[in-house]
Amino acid sequence: MDALSIVGLICGGFVVGFVLGRGTNRRPAPAAALKAPPAPDELAKIKAVRDSGQMITAIKMYRDQTGAGLKQAKEAVEQIV
Question: pTM of whole model > 0.70?
Answer without folding.
Answer: no
